[in-house]
Amino acid sequence: MLRPLFPPFLLSLFLLTACAVQYRSDISLPAATSSSNAALRKAAEKWLGTPYQYGGNDARGIDCSGLACRLYEEVFSYRLPRAANDQRRLGYSVHAPYLKAGDLIFFRFAGDERIEHVGVYLGGGEFIHASTRRGVVIDRLDDPYYRRHVVVIKRVLR
């Protein structure tokens, strides 16, 4: 007696379909809009000149990951983890030609695997970050120094 092939085929099709649609990393993330892009630049400019302070989180002094946290919370109402290495684990990687305002840019300056710095892309080739020597500044991503040290760019918001 032959076993019917139809029920196992349906079961396989169901399992494949269920697995294919199960994972969506962006399902609970808020969308970035053009109005939030303008709000990001405006919020970023308020931080310009703030001195760098490791572990700092306010206008008296702030570090790079603290600045990213503050900007995301103020502009996007989204709470990032405090440490740059934890921020790196969020979202998905983006190639430089597809950058959008709000993307996080991660840098490594030494030879080890550790992320050492994070900036927030503002659009127009510019990003804001807390420089250890210059405080909060806006720099160009196409500057050879920064371009050579980019490790990964992450999009946290859709």
- Look at the helices and sheets and give the structural class: alpha+beta
**Helical coverage, percent range:** 25-40%
Give the biggest sheet.
6 strands, antiparallel
Portion of residues in beta strands equals 15-25%
User: What is the string of SSEs from the N terminus onward?
Assistant: HHEEHHEEEEEHE
Main-sheet strand order equals: 3-8-4-5-6-7
Q: What Rg, in angstroms, do the CA atoms define? A: 20 Å
Q: How many DSSP helices?
A: 5
Q: How many strand units?
A: 8
Average predicted local confidence, pLDDT? 82
Kindly, what is the distance between the CA atoms of the first and last residues, rounded to a whole number of angstroms? Answer: 54 Å
Shape: globular
Unreliable sequence segments: 9-31
Quick description:
The chain has helices at about 5-20, 35-45, 65-75, 85-90, 145-150; strands at about 55-60, 60, 90-95, 105, 115-125, 125-130, 135-140, 150-155. With about 160 residues, the chain is an alpha+beta fold. The strands form two sheets. A six-stranded antiparallel β-sheet has the order 3-8-4-5-6-7. Strands 1-2 form a two-stranded antiparallel ribbon.
Q: What's the structural blueprint in terms of helices and strands?
A:
Blueprint: H1 6-22, H2 34-47, E1 57-58, E2 61-62, H3 64-76, H4 84-88, E3 92-93, E4 104-107, E5 117-123, E6 126-131, E7 135-140, H5 144-149, E8 150-155
Antiparallel strand pairs: 1-2, 3-8, 4-5, 4-8, 5-6, 6-7
Helix pairs in contact: 2-3
